[in-house]
Amino acid sequence: MLAGGILRGERVALARGITLVESNKAEHFEAAQKLVENLLPHAGQSIRVGISGVPGAGKSTMIEALGLYLAEKGHKIAVLAIDPSSQRSGGSILGDKTRMERLARNPRAFIRPSPSGGALGGVARKTRESIVLCEAAGYDVTLVETMGVGQGEYAVRNMVDVFVLLQIAGAGDELQGIKRGIMEMADIIVINKADGENKSRAEAARAELRMALHYMDFELPGWKPPVITLSALHGAGIDQFWNAVRDYRTTVEKQMGINERRRRQDVDWMLDVLDREARRLVLEHPSVARLMQQGASAIREGRLSPAHAAARVLEHIKKVFDAHDV
């Protein structure tokens, strides 16, 4: 039984389980949801950390350094790394196990590169289910790495306990074009590559970011994200970073409770699934799809404005719903 193997911590069973929940095949949906529901009572015990940042900030290097640090302290670490999908095969193309070679060889770590499947911002559609499976398998720290391309960070923020924004100094604009909204989502900000000649630039960037944070609003009352400099390459500052993660989680527990926060996230999980599937069901309805194709042709030929074409489709959808007394 697959659930039994996962509960025993069998890595092969865990990998098979994640493959099942990631499947887009309709015939796998019921089996995947039954597996998740069987494992839910055994999940929820890990610290969930989302890590995002600009390309080149060293996310994989930091995650490997953090994973090795935690493994030495007796933790079991699951890394769910969201890869961009190959347009040809649909599979992951970055190869996280090769980017985190030392951590991948550690028996206390499990690394799963998951293709984004074209999801907005590169967030894997089934990451939440994968977290449940990893926790049921006994992993007490779950690290979710995003591609760091923008809107996907909002989705990851809503499935983890702590959201970390990774920055680098010396890249021209010290804020590196990060939008205010993403900065305000961050619970902890880390400036990586604070070593060698770059150390002074990292400290300058830290001061600039701390100043910028004074003018921003954050979700948790009384918590202003600490800005931490570290060198993932040399492992310097990893302990300070992990202490900040634990401090934030403790603050959440005192103010609202981790379980209450996660229940809210679970409701959003349901709404996310409903939004995605309702959209698919509506747009795949034969008459709606046909009208959309007609509208697209009219737009290309200059006979109809995009807004007018959309209004026609929406009016038709309303009639379809009314006809079925929905």
Question: What share of the residues lie within helices?
Answer: 40-55%
Strands, count: 7
Q: What is the SS-derived class?
A: alpha/beta
Main sheet makeup = 7 strands, parallel
Count, helices: 14
Keywords:
single chain, alpha/beta, 326 residues, seven-stranded parallel beta sheet, 14 helices
Describe what is shown at a glance.
Helices cover 52% and strands 13% of the residues. It is an alpha/beta fold and 326 residues long.
Report on the structure:
It is a single chain. By secondary structure, the protein is an alpha/beta fold. Helices cover 52% and strands 13% of the residues. It has helices at 2-7, 11-22, 26-39, 59-72, 96-99, 101-105, 127-136, 152-157, 180-185, 199-213, 238-255, 258-283, 286-300, 306-323; strands spanning 47-53, 77-83, 109-115, 141-145, 162-168, 188-192, 227-229. The protein has a 7-stranded parallel beta sheet with strand order 3-2-4-1-5-6-7, sandwiched between helices. α10 links the parallel β6 and β7 (227-229). α2 (11-22) runs antiparallel to α7 and α13 packs antiparallel against α14 (306-323). The chain starts with a helix and ends with a helix.
